[in-house]
Structures are given as structure tokens and as C-alpha cells.
Design goal:
Length: 602
């Protein structure tokens, strides 16, 4: 039996609000419909039981004190005790159900929020550490678990209390209704006056966090070049504006909250005075004075609570709107599992526009590779090499053309399953907090020691790992902080070749390697090709493409040449030396399958 728990992400398109855009928040809330009905029922019972106190006091004043009957007082006390027991029970149940609604909402949306955290940098071409979707989900859950929603559930019962007061005397009912209307007006004012500053403050929070995250990533360069003061001023300027807006919103909210509380207390006194006046005229009993004041306080309490939590309500609404935008999109497509690719890679007129840009980075790139072949992609800086690499591994989709493995376009594969057949080493190698073995195995819980060691041997890092304090079980810290740049790159290479994927794309894999590391890289590429993998290497240094048999030359995002390496290198008269575009007086020659760069005499 499957242990998978259905979530909002698993709902059908019809359940998620239509065939087109999904509203996962609405779908998640729909799964909590029964809980909300239960909370509404509990609120009904609680608000009825809230009349226990004032009605008890009214009976004491009007019956017990006038009759002097102690048995009546005892019976009333027993009844009140029983009613308050049920009141506390339903209050506890309502609070616990509301907390569980927040937790259920988190369970429904957290997988999609985490995927959004991973996808947002790819959509926006940013490598920031923004966790905004998760923070928004936390804000929404915390609001649902607070006292704020209770005010929303209690507000519909305000007419009940006003109706009881009207039964006491119409004049008292009019006073209570006027007080309720005045507090509702203050609640609306809270929405109007705080909406804009809180929205602007939320935008500044994102900017402030982005600057802080960027500074943290580049702390070494900032310290070495004395940039802390300048960047501190930038962060401080954003933070000052944020604090001013937050202070403005807090001042307004505090003023309205104080006014609300003062008006509620004033209305209690007014209704007491009005009740006393009516009692003097013998139109109401003395007990009615006290009961009316207590019921008046209870009638206005949800409005006061709503005003006090209005900032939380606005923040939760903003979080929900951002989540709705972030998590929206077409419903997931269930794809038929395709067999492991083992024959070919084909690119047909591939054109890519980087996310967040309107400019084409590569245009009409086309070539084919068969199993066991290796391709070196060369060209000057900003020629589109890394963009092509990202497109080949499916990180950046093409706006035109197709990339196919064994004849199947990348979008026909399930992304998770396709990842098993692809190895990728980006320019910036980021490792994760965990052990060496976990990072090499891509945190696969089903990994075997043999697979991990095989990948490490291919990357030429097995002996180096054994010298670490705990070998393969050494914890490398956040981003692999205990390793050098070259070691991180070689662990990243081992991760790329783990489980011998069919397609391996290495973006400047020797950028931080020494001579021993470059030799290991060349041997790894040769070994991978022998076992049937297609290996693509993006290179600026000639040693990186020593073990490939094809070359692709790019310039300004366009394909200049493609073919066997020796044929491409023989065309140096027609094609400028792409490995030395910044050294125009260099020449390139082929010797024993490797590239040798020799400077021409000046």
C-alpha cells in the first residue's frame, strides 16, 4: 500500500481551480473545509455560552437578592459551573483545531513552497538565497494559529449580543449598536491607513534580506577590499526606510488600538449610566444594568481583537497573495516513464533567452552526438557557452528548437527521473552541509558505498578523501567550507559522474584544479566515454578538452563551427583561436590529441 499522503499539489486540475492556472492556497484551504465548519460550530456554542456570566449575574440580582433563596443561588452556581466547563472545553477544541488547520496548510503547501524556492532563481536568473515562499507560508500559518482568526469567527455573533441587549430595552440596544458601528469604522480605518506602509515595508524587507545575503556570500572579498562601510551604508539606508515605515504603521495601529479600547470601555460606562437611568425610571431591573454592560463588552470584544491583530491580518493577506503568485502555474503533467537514454543527444536550432532577460543568448545551435563521444565547447567570453550548458541539462528552457535524448525532447521526461541520467558541474560549485559521501551521492538515501567510491575514483579524489578526518563520512560544513576550491570542484565532479549518467556536462571543470587534478579530469572523461556516456566540456584552458573528439565553436551566441576536433583545429586560419581570444598573438596547434598554446613572437 502506498504511504503517499495527498496534498494540494496532487489535486486534479479541476480540483485546483481549473485547467489553466492553479490556486494551491484555495485548494489547500478547501481540504480544511471540515475543520472550518467545526470551528464555526464551536464558535456558535462558545458565543452562546458567553451569555452565562451576565445572565447568572442578572438572576442573582433580580431573584436571589430579592427572594433571599440560598437553594436558588446554589442551583444557579452548579449550573454556571457546568456551563463554564463546557465553555472551556469548546474554547480549547476550537483553539487546537485552528492550530491544526495552520499545520495542515503548511503540510499541503510546503512541498510546493520548497520547489518554488528552488525554481525562483532559475526563473529570474538570480542565485540569491531567498526563501520568501517559505517565510510567507510561515507567516500564513502563524496567523492562522493566532487569536486573529478567532475574531473573524466571533464577529458574526455580534448581532446575537446586540439582540439580547435590545430585549433588555430598545434604548440600550441602540447605544450598543452605535458603539459597535463606531468600532467597526475604526477597524476599516486600520485597513486603509496601514495597507500602503505595510506593503512598502514588505518590499523593503526583501531588498534588505537580498543585500544581507549577497554580502554574506561575498564576505571574504568585502573584508579584503575594505567594502564593509560602503555596503553597510547601502544596507543601513534600506533598513532605515523599512524601520520608518514599520514605525509609521505601528504608531497608527497603536493609536487605533488605544482608541478602540478606550471607546469600548467608554461604551460600557455609557450603557451602565443609561441602564441606571432606566432603572431609576423603573423601566429595567437592577440586574439588567450589570448584564447589559457585560454583554456590551462581549459584543465589542471581537472588533477590538480584530483591530489589535489587523497588522497580522494584512501581513497574512500579503503573504497569501505572494504565495498565490509564486505557486501559480499550469498543473503538473504526469509523464510516461521513458527508458534510460543510451544512444544519442540531438540539438535542433536551439535558441535560448535567459530568464529575466529579453536578449537572445544563443541562437539556432544544432549538433548531434552519439554514445561514447565527447564534445568541447569553446569560444570567447560571453559567447553563450554556459547558457548552452544550462539549456542542455534542462535548467533553462529553449524558446525555439529542441534538445532530445534518444529522440525524446527533454520536456517529455519527468525532471526528477531525468536528473538520474544527467551529470552537471556548473562553474560555481556549491556543496551542501553534509558528509562527503552524501554530497557525492546527491543525498540519495539508497546510495551504496561502491557507487560513491566509484564516482570518487573517477574524479581522482578517493585518496584525498581517505586523508580527511572521517574519510567519506567527514562533514564538510555549509557550502563545503572545510574544503579548498579545488577540492570542492573535484567533489562536484564526483557528484556529476555518480552512478555513471548518460549525459555529463562540465562547465570549466579545471578552473580550480592543479596539474594532478587536470590529469584526473582527463582520465575521468576518457573512462566515462568508454562506458558509453556523452561528455560535454566547456573550456577556456586547453587541457580540459584533451580527451574529447569533437569541438563546437561559439561566438556572440552563434555556432561558428562543429565537427571533429582535429578538423576544427586545422581551420585556425578561418576561425580565430577561441581558447585565447584575449591573447591575439597566440597560435594553436594540435599535437597528440591535446592542445598546445604557444605565444607568437611580438
Amino acid at each position: 500500500m502506498s504511504s503517499h499522503k495527498p496534498t494540494a499539489s496532487d489535486a486534479s486540475p479541476q480540483q485546483q481551480g481549473g485547467i489553466g492556472e492553479r490556486n494551491l492556497i484555495r485548494a489547500a484551504l478547501r481540504t480544511c473545509r471540515g475543520a472550518f465548519i467545526g470551528i464555526g460550530l464551536f464558535s456558535c456554542i462558545i458565543n452562546i455560552l458567553m451569555l452565562t456570566g451576565p445572565l447568572f449575574m442578572m438572576q442573582v440580582y433580580d431573584r436571589v437578592l430579592t427572594s433571599g433563596s440560598l437553594p436558588t443561588l446554589a442551583a444557579l452556581l452548579v449550573l454556571v459551573t457546568l456551563l463554564y466547563f463546557f465553555f472551556s472545553l469548546f474554547e480549547l477544541l476550537r483553539s487546537r483545531v485552528l492550530i491544526r488547520v495552520g499545520r495542515r496548510l503548511d503540510e499541503e503547501l510546503s512541498p510546493s513552497a520548497f520547489r518554488a524556492v528552488l525554481a525562483l532563481p532559475l526563473r529570474q536568473n538570480q542565485k540569491g538565497e531567498s526563501t520568501a515562499p517559505i517565510r510567507d507560508l510561515d507567516s500564513l500559518r502563524q496567523f492562522l494559529s493566532s487569536q486573529g482568526p478567532l475574531a473573524i469567527f466571533d464577529m458574526p455573533w455580534i448581532p446575537l449580543y446586540l439582540g439580547v441587549i435590545f430585549l433588555f430595552h430598545p434604548f440600550l440596544g441602540l447605544i450598543a449598536s452605535a458603539g459597535a458601528g463606531l468600532l467597526l469604522l475604526l477597524a476599516v480605518m486600520s485597513e486603509v491607513v496601514n495597507r500602503k506602509p505595510l506593503r512598502e515595508a514588505a518590499g523593503l524587507v526583501n531588498r534588505r534580506n537580498a543585500v544581507a545575503a549577497s554580502c554574506r556570500r561575498n564576505s571574504e572579498a568585502i573584508h579584503a577590499m575594505g567594502m564593509s562601510a560602503q555596503l553597510g551604508n547601502i544596507w543601513g539606508g534600506i533598513n532605515d526606510r523599512y524601520l520608518r515605515l514599520q514605525g509609521k504603521a505601528s504608531d497608527r495601529a497603536g493609536m487605533l488600538s488605544a482608541a478602540t479600547r478606550a471607546i469600548r470601555l467608554l461604551m460600557q460606562s455609557v450603557i451602565l449610566a443609561a441602564g441606571a437611568w432606566l432603572a431609576v425610571k423603573q423601566e429595567v431591573s437592577p440586574g439588567t444594568i450589570i448584564a447589559g454592560s457585560i454583554i456590551m463588552s462581549r459584543a465589542l470584544a471581537p472588533i477590538e481583537l480584530a483591530v489589535a491583530h489587523w497588522r497580522g491580518f494584512i501581513a497574512a493577506r500579503q503573504s497569501a497573495n505572494r504565495l498565490k503568485t509564486t505557486l501559480s502555474g499550469p498543473p503538473p503533467v504526469v509523464r510516461t516513464d521513458l527508458p534510460r537514454p543510451k544512444r544519442s543527444l540531438d540539438l535542433n536550432s536551439v535558441t535560448v533567452v535567459p530568464p529575466g532577460s529579453s536578449k537572445t543568448a544563443i541562437e539556432r545551435i544544432g549538433f548531434s552526438l552519439q554514445a561514447g563521444e565527447g564534445l568541447g565547447i569553446i569560444g570567447p567570453s560571453a559567447s553563450g557557452k554556459s547558457t548552452l550548458a544550462r539549456s542542455i541539462v534542462g535548467v533553462w528552457p529553449s524558446i525555439m528548437g529542441k534538445i532530445c535524448l534518444d529522440g525524446a525532447a527533454l520536456d517529455q521526461w519527468d525532471p526528477i527521473k531525468l536528473g538520474r541520467y544527467i551529470g552537471y558541474l556548473p562553474q560555481a560549485v556549491d556543496l551542501f552541509d553534509g558528509t562527503i559521501a552524501e554530497n557525492i551521492a546527491r543525498f540519495d538515501p539508497a546510495r551504496s558505498a561502491e557507487q560513491v567510491i566509484q564516482a570518487a575514483r573517477l574524479a581522482g579524489i578517493h585518496d584525498l578523501i581517505l586523508k580527511l578526518p572521517d574519510g567519506y563520512d567527514t562533514s564538510i560544513g555549509d557550502a563545503g567550507s572545510i574544503l579548498s576550491a579545488g577540492q570542492r570542484q573535484r567533489v562536484g565532479l564526483a557528484r556529476a559522474v555518480y552512478d555513471l549518467p548518460f549525459l555529463i556536462v562540465l562547465d570549466e571543470p579545471n578552473a580550480n584544479l592543479d596539474a594532478e587534478g587536470e590529469l584526473a579530469l582527463t582520465e575521468a572523461i576518457s573512462a566515462l566515454r568508454k562506458q558509453g556516456s556523452i561528455v560535454i566540456v566547456i573550456a577556456h584552458r586547453p587541457s580540459a578538452i584533451a580527451a574529447v573528439d569533437h569541438l563546437l565553436v561559439l561566438k556572440d551566441g552563434r555556432q561558428q563551427a562543429f565537427g571533429r576536433k582535429d578538423e576544427i583545429l586545422s581551420q585556425t586560419a578561418a576561425i580565430p583561436s577561441p581558447l585565447n581570444v584575449n591573447k591575439p598573438k597566440a597560435k594553436m596547434s594540435a599535437k597528440k590529441g591535446a592542445l598546445n598554446i604557444a605565444a607568437e613572437p611580438a
